[in-house]
């Protein structure tokens, strides 16, 4: 999940499928009991009580990667040692990763606010998840250039047009990578 991300999200079935009006919804994680509902929305804010504003939580790899608004990035082990932060870093002005002190996250519940969320509709969670494009880890424009064997400049131009900025070493969300690839007609390897 990421701030500014607009897509369909799947939640555990709440008491009512009326439009979202400030009541808490819980993302469906595949392990949840009960039925699921889906709604299309745009995330406006992700917040953690200890670490504040979060830009993105990427669950696409072996570890969860959390991008805080202050520039700190950290990987969290979700399985073997749940909650353990193995690495923490921030990117300096030149795009170089600078180590930060690793810490342990005590409470994993985050609040996600939506700018807008459509009416919720019932959905078969297994077929919905099977139909979705598989996710992948974030990547930089430099990595995207290497993936496709193309010059960096058209990728930077596409990122700027999308309002993402011109930094070549700042990680883009998996969704932004997909949009840039589609915009430039780049086939996935």
Task: Describe the sheet with the most strands.
Answer: 9 strands, antiparallel
Report the principal-axis shape: globular
Strand and helix order: EEEEEEEEEHHHH
Work out the number of β strands: 9
Which spans have pLDDT < 50 for at least 5 consecutive residues?
A: none
Classify the helix fraction into a percent range: 10-25%
Number of helices: 4
Radius of gyration: 18 Å
Report strand %.
25-35%
Integer average pLDDT: 78
Structural class: alpha+beta
Distance between the termini: 24 Å
Task: Write up what this structure looks like.
It is a single chain. A hairpin with a 5-residue loop joins strand 3 and strand 4 (64-68). It contains four helices and nine strands; from the N terminus they run E-E-E-E-E-E-E-E-E-H-H-H-H. The mean pLDDT is 78. Strands 1, 2, 3, 4, 5, 6, 7, 8 and 9 form a nine-stranded antiparallel beta sheet that branches. The two termini are 24 Å apart. It has 189 residues and is of the alpha+beta class. Helix 3 (152-161) packs across helix 4. It has helices at 125-131, 141-148, 152-161, 174-184; strands at 6-12, 36-48, 52-58, 64-68, 72-77, 84-91, 97-99, 111-117, 121-123.
Structure described in brief:
The longest helix is centred in the C-terminal third of the chain and has 11 residues, at 174-184. The radius of gyration is 18 Å and the shape is globular. 19% of the residues lie in helices and 31% in strands.
Any chance you could write out the topology, listing elements then pairs?
Layout: E1 6-12, E2 36-48, E3 52-58, E4 64-68, E5 72-77, E6 84-91, E7 97-99, E8 111-117, E9 121-123, H1 125-131, H2 141-148, H3 152-161, H4 174-184
Antiparallel strand pairs: 1-2, 2-3, 2-8, 2-9, 3-4, 4-5, 5-6, 6-7
Helix pairs in contact: 3-4
């Amino acid at each position: 999940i990421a701030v500014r991300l607009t897509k369909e999200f799947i939640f555990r079935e709440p008491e009512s499928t009326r439009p979202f009006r400030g009541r808490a919804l819980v993302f469906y994680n595949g392990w949840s009991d009960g039925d699921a509902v889906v709604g299309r929305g745009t995330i406006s804010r992700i917040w953690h009580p200890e670490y504040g504003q979060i830009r993105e939580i990427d669950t696409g790899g072996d570890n969860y990667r959390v991008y805080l608004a202050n520039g700190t990035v950290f990987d969290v082990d979700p399985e073997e040692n749940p909650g353990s932060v193995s690495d923490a870093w921030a990117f300096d002005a030149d795009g170089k990763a600078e180590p930060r002190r690793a810490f342990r996250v005590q409470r994993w519940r985050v609040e996600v606010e939506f700018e807008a969320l459509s009416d919720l509709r019932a959905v078969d969670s297994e077929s919905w998840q099977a139909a979705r494009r598989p996710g992948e880890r974030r990547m930089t424009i430099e990595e995207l250039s290497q993936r496709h064997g193309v010059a960096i400049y058209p990728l930077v131009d596409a990122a700027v047009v999308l309002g993402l900025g011109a930094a070549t070493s700042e990680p883009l969300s998996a969704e932004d990578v997909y949009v840039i690839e589609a915009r430039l007609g780049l086939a996935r390897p």
